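Dear support,

I submitted the protein below through the web form. The confirmation email said the job was done, but the results page showed an empty box. After a refresh the structure appeared. I'm attaching both so you can tell me whether what I see now is the final result or a partial one.
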Amino acid sequence: MRDIRVAKPYARALYEAATEQRVLPSIAADIVTLKALSEQSEEFGEFINTPLLSPQLKSNLFQQLFTGGLHPLTINFLKLLAQKQRERYIGAIMDVFSAIVDEAAGRIVAKVTTAVPISQDQAQRLVQQLSTYSGKQVRLEAETDEQIQGGFIVKLGDTVFDASVATQLQRLKRQLAKG
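What the results page shows now:
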């Protein structure tokens, strides 16, 4: 919960700066790049979360690592986070920033969880149905979790559609226990 409280003002400030400078598409692309980096690189996560490095050193490393690869505004933002010792919240900040961008564009994120990866055709049909339901353009984020055993779980904003086999089995178990 604290992560979100810290992340919101930073994400909003980055969004407003990117909009004001008319570089929002570049910054949004940088955020996608940083998300992928943080998900794929343990070293990056350790670098961000280590308290042993000084804010100045982290700031300098952000400058060296990302110059030429990320927009200067993104680099300055990362340096600011390092100087304020808020870099450990970068994951939450990126999530909030993406949500702000989606909201401003009239998009909503649907997170679908399935036991096995869904096909491209299934994803397209799901996006169409959810777009019709929500009245907004849907951006689908898919993940797999074998523990749901089958079916799917979709989180669309505050709404959850749980058609997983695991949940259906739990409901059946409760009904049988009641008698």
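Response: this is the final, complete result; the empty box was a page-load delay. The chain has eight helices and four strands.
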